[in-house]
Design brief:
57% of the residues lie in helices and 0% in strands. By secondary structure, it is an all-alpha fold. The chain is elongated, with a radius of gyration of 21 Å.
């Protein structure tokens, strides 16, 4: 059972700003996945959905370009 509340837009924005970055991304994904059920997504909405799905992890070590380092053999 869904509860319908009337919340002023400004208050809603303040509540969303209190969410963590992960929760904001989850909210964006949820909103954008519900929109296609009502109408097709625009290109900008598709980009936002793609950006929300990205992870932001740094690479600690740059991978070697040498095959030997990856497979522990000399390539034969």
């Amino acid at each position: 059972m869904a509860v319908k509340l009337t919340i002023p837009y400004e208050q809603l924005v303040e509540l969303v700003e209190q969410l963590s970055e992960e929760q904001r991304k989850a909210l964006i994904v949820r909103l954008l996945t519900q929109l296609p059920q009502q109408r097709p997504l625009t290109a900008e909405e598709k980009i936002q959905l793609f950006d929300a799905a990205k992870i932001d992890n740094r690479i600690n070590v740059t991978p070697s370009i040498r095959r030997e380092d990856w497979y522990d053999d000399d390539g034969r």
